[in-house]
Amino acid sequence: MNSSNLLARNARKYPMNEAIICHGRRVSYSQLDEQVTRFSHALLKQGIEPGDKVVIFMPNVLEFVVSYFSIQRIGAIVVPVNAKFTLSEVLFVTQHAGAKAIIAHEAIFSSVESILTVPIKIKTGQVQDGWLSYDALIQEACSETIDCQLNEDDASTILYTSGTTGKPKGVLFIYRNILAVAQMIAIEMEVKPESRILLMMPLTHSAPLHLFFMAGMLVGSTNVLTPTFTPDLFIDMIEQEKTTHFFGAPVAYLLTAQMPRLQTADLTSMKWWVYGGAPLSQKEVRFIQNALQTDNLTCVYGLTEAGPSGAILFGQEHTQKAGSIGNRAPFGTELRIVNENGGDVLVGEIGEIVLYGEGNMMGYYKDEEATKVAFIDGWIRTGDLARFDEDGYIWIVDRKKDVIISGGVNIYPKEIEDCLLSYEGVFEVAVIGVPHPQWGETVKAVYASKVDVNEEVLVAYLGEHLAKHKIPRIFECVEALPRNAAGKILKQSLKGQEVS
């Protein structure tokens, strides 16, 4: 089985059922499958072959879904790219993956308009010199059935996630990995054909794409897509489309819970309110539960390299264990906390979380060394330090790496530090995460400069090279950064200063 054949099967089983709702467009499973078939023929006609890498540069729109399944139907490999990426970031991904084609959406086309390194370029909307028209390709293509022969052991997707070296790593998945975690969500969260899944978080991220979108496609649910998130739009979509499942970062819930209109909003259709990317405190949980009038707030923990999969904390458990990530791994996954020797820790001892399951990646694309480091006897290292409490619940206490999680999105300091150090005059810098009441963490840059460099100048410079969400919100200029005897910058000292 593969993802594209799942769609074809649902088109036969549920031909008139709505598959995708987006921007007023309502597409049934049979209509979606026909569009995918046509676009698949168009890609083949352009010379895209099995094993080729095809970049999707789009927000959550119907064209993303059509492109996703069309690429897979012809045996090519999907490379979804964050819609907030700058040209330089997209260039790195296309070059590292060896992308043969890029499919871009008109709403964010300006970011990649000048890209020259990809042989085949396709865009939605108005025709542009040097770019093929997505709409024309579909209209002119035939609808003859394509029999996709891929199986669960064939390559499906490469998701790029930045590493602490500052260079994004390509996480390679086969179909087995993706179908395993989709099945996990369908089982754990009761996803059925009558479910209506609200997808507002970017489909270029593993949790929205592999967990919730693919769980819906696995069983034939309706997927409601929006290109952006706002609290008002969130409430509107629930009321208008009677959605049943939503996954979002904690900040999405915290912002929505502040909306006065919740007092009269009809949210009764919702069965599963799911969050991930960062824990919520007991106080925040009560605030959100009261605002949404629900006790079914569910926390999922995982990482892209694991599918994602990891751990789960259900609604009723939040009363006593809010802030924990749960007391077990979900269906199909195993979790341990191990010491430096790979042995299981005792209750209360701190170790690293490691995960095992069919959702685990095949490895980092073109990076055998990093792949070796990522695994220990078949278990994937998370880099998260945690402990079990006396009830068996898991509490994350720190991260081995300095990853900052802001609004559920991973931000990697080294990438920002390297960019700041490339600015003339800045000679040392440390980027850290500091507490934020809504986003969990926000990004702070502490730097030393030989000349007078103000915040506005640095923000403008970073904006030319990095996505907006990576740019620090707080800057502090110091004479010198604290270092230990070996010369290493003491980031924990900087964090301690901020907390105090």
Q: Overview of this structure, please?
A:
The chain is of the alpha/beta class and 500 residues long. It folds into 2 domains: 3-228 and 294-384, 3-Layer(aba) Sandwich (Rossmann fold), CATH 3.40.50; 404-499, GMP Synthetase, Chain A, domain 3. 31% of the residues lie in helices and 27% in strands. It has 15 helices and 26 strands. The strands form 6 sheets. The protein has an 8-stranded mixed β-sheet, sandwiched between helices. Strands 4-3-5-6-7 form a 5-stranded parallel β-sheet. Strands 16, 17, 19, 20 and 21 form a 5-stranded antiparallel β-sheet that branches. A hairpin with a 2-residue loop joins strand 22 and strand 23. Helix 2 crosses helix 3. The longest helix is centred in the first third of the chain and has 17 residues, at 29-45. The relative contact order is 0.09. The mean pLDDT is 92.
